[in-house]
Amino acid sequence: MGKVRQILLARRPEGVPKLEDFQLAETEMPVPGEGEFLVAMRVGSVDPAIRGFLDDRPSYIEPVALGEPIKGMSLGEVVESNNPEYPVGTFVRAFAHWSDHYVLSGDAWGIEKVNPQPGVDLHHYMGALGPVGLTAWVGLFAVGEAKPGETVVVSAAAGATGSTVGQIAKAKGCRVIGIAGSPEKIEVIRDLGFDAGIDYRATPDIATEISKVAPEGVDVYFDNVGGEMLEAILPLMRLHGRVAVCGMIGQYNDADHPYGVKTLWQLVVNRIKMQGFITFDYAELLDKAQAELDGWVAEGKLKPLANLRDGFEKLPEAFIDLMSGRTIGKTLVRI
Fold it and tell me: Which residues contact 209 (CB under 8 A, 6 or more apart)?
């Protein structure tokens, strides 16, 4: 059957991951059992959440053991099947190992069939038309309850999820303020239609800058950063504001020293709802979300933003760049 390439965890990262933390290895091709199918990875997703799986501490996914393959979302094609519901040629998204071939079953965590549309590049189904778009939709509408006319602030706005959040909020009639970390990133989000962009690295007082462009306050904050950013924005929230906590990338590289947010009393003062979420907790809404995302892309209201690499072996390099803040849009590796 041949060999399979895998990316293993060679050592636990300290701070920003380094190439030495990963190892490219080969193993025997897995054989699907009864009800299982063999999948060839076509697109690997590089996500900030993976950083949390590399530390030896509890998370919503069991930590990766030393010497074991990294775990993440990927899109693959079924190349051998013992499951009639997943015949050869089916495209599937799932949480799987960083392996160029892997075995799944129909009850694998997060598994979804993908039906690529003519003229749409396959990698977009791991970005704005896939987990990224679904995460943005769930956080903004199911958790954040964003409504037309409201003011939405999103951090890490030039990233995969943030850039999608801003565009779909605009598509729903919201006013959108994006926070990012360079003039280049601010230009990107303005080109995507954001009403305002703030470079947090260029201002010593992020709260004052947000107040200038949102003098009546913030209705929804889509939080990808946590820490000092969350602390600055909470006092700007309007009565009954909502905070959708998608991630806290500002702390992933130093999880042993989390930042203590000092403004949590604002949750009581303004009766703010702040909730973390995982997309698949809202499985009953994902078909609706997918339909709206597909429609917005077709109408030109949602422009997928992707940072692409080619080659399975590029997964660690792409992940390091992501965690170093050097990427714009969704970081993906085409196999």
Answer: 198, 203
pLDDT for res 101: 97
> CB atoms < 10 A from the CB of 80, how many?
17
**In this structure, what token pair is assigned to residue 9?**
């965890």
CATH number at residue 136: 3.40.50.720
SS3 251: helix
pLDDT, tens digit (0-9, with 9 covering 90-100), for 246-275: 987 655 555 556 667 899 999 999 999 999
Domain that holds residue 190: 131-280
In a domain, 242, yes or no: yes
Helical spans, DSSP H, in the chain: 49-53, 131-137, 160-171, 183-191, 206-213, 227-233, 249-252, 266-269, 286-299, 315-323
Helices 160-171 and 183-191 pack at an angle, to 10 degrees, of 30
Cα Rg, the chain, nearest whole Å: 20
